[in-house]
């Protein structure tokens, strides 16, 4: 497969918005971080392997946020996939902030 061409063989094919075409099937990186989406992953090598596999399957967008870890998933993505192919798009949410206090409060209410 050409690394710069989205894979049409993934579920849902591709989706185009303006001049941007991505696979409908993306990868959500939230679970790459540790328990409660805080800290490093329990299996760092496994997390890196998952990212390599996603890119190898032709997935052209990865969803992340600096709040995951915090910043852990972004660091793992950069370490594993940089330099990025022209077809790979890293999409992120901005403005979210998480810390241990917030995690403790979410645990109290069962979230």
Automatic annotation (TrEMBL):
Q: Which InterPro entries match?
A: NAD(P)_OxRdtase_dom_sf, NADP_OxRdtase_dom
| Cross-referenced Pfam families | Aldo_ket_red
- Looking at the record, the residues that make up the NADP-dependent oxidoreductase domain are 26-100
> Could you name the domain of life of the organism this protein comes from?
Bacteria
What is the recorded name of this protein? NADP-dependent oxidoreductase domain-containing protein
Species annotation: Rugosimonospora acidiphila
